Amino acid sequence: MSRDGVPEVTAAEIAAGLRAAIARGDYAPGDRLPGENALMDSHGVARMTARKALAQLQAEGLTVTRRGVGVFVRGFTPVIRNGIARLASRPWEAGTPIWEREARGRALDVDSITVDAGTGAPDDIARILALAPGAKVCRRDRRYVLDGKPVMLATSYLPAELACGSPITEPDPGPGGIYARLADLGRAPVHFREDLTARMPTPEQAGALQLEPGTPVVTIDRIAADANGHPVELNRMTLDAAAYVIRYDFDA
């Protein structure tokens, strides 16, 4: 109860009001939200209630906190990832990396690439790629940065006997990326399956993606198979959930 006997507004109610104001555009990306003191005055609540309301918005990925400055509406424009169209059009045949099309002219950089041409496959990877336990795989690790912000970590695993001696083992595999090189080897991917899960990041992932506290990640395992149904790649992607809209667009 407040001092005058009126039930105190809850943190959830304050958060709902701010959330609606953001959705209406009352607060644009980059705008500063009312701070704890302002919310205490406008709603007649205790500091802890105001703090919980702001923490709820941050946990939802709507805001970022700048220590000593305030709470701001998250300003990064999400990437629209169309899970079907991005692969059905086979852009690598024209020499265009899949991810580059989604950047839509924004500043895209792969700022970290490491390749291990012959490492032992973890048990789950060997199973997915239909390899014998402990078989060698070519592992490619990348970090994708858009407009200066890390948004995705990706690790590709390909059978080493397939990738060995090809540009796939190079940091830059050439125009069209590794799918174009698989096509050069007569093993073009023609069927894909993606499994999506959501969870909280590991500390290493949170650091690499520079995530705000409370921001979850989406993990996508994409399995590419050739015309004979044999798996040729597993790409395990970890996405900043606040940086993506994952879209599936298809006819009934």
Number of domains: 2
Termini gap = 53 Å
Please give the radius of gyration in angstroms: 23 Å
CATH architecture of the largest domain: 3-Layer(aba) Sandwich
Structural class: alpha+beta
What spatial form do the alpha-carbon principal axes imply? elongated
Total strands: 10
- SS element count, helices: 9
> What is the percentage of strand-forming residues?
25-35%
What is the CATH C level class of the largest domain, in words? Alpha Beta
**Nearest-integer average pLDDT:** 89
Poorly predicted tracts of residues: none
What order do the helices and strands follow? Answer: HHHEEEHHEHEEHHEHEEE
CATH topology (level 3) name of the largest domain: Chorismate lyase
What is the helix content? 25-40%
What does this structure look like?
- The protein is an alpha+beta fold.
- The chain has 2 domains: 63 residues, Arc Repressor Mutant, subunit A (Orthogonal Bundle), CATH 1.10.10.10; 169 residues, 3-Layer(aba) Sandwich (Chorismate lyase).
- Strand 8 and strand 9 form a beta hairpin.
- The longest helix has 14 residues.
Topology overview:
Elements: H1 11-24, H2 36-43, H3 47-59, E1 63-66, E2 70-73, E3 79-82, H4 85-88, H5 98-103, E4 108-120, H6 123-128, E5 136-146, E6 149-159, H7 160-163, H8 177-184, E7 191-199, H9 203-208, E8 217-225, E9 231-240, E10 244-247
Parallel strand pairs: 3-10
Antiparallel strand pairs: 1-2, 4-5, 5-6, 6-9, 7-8, 8-9
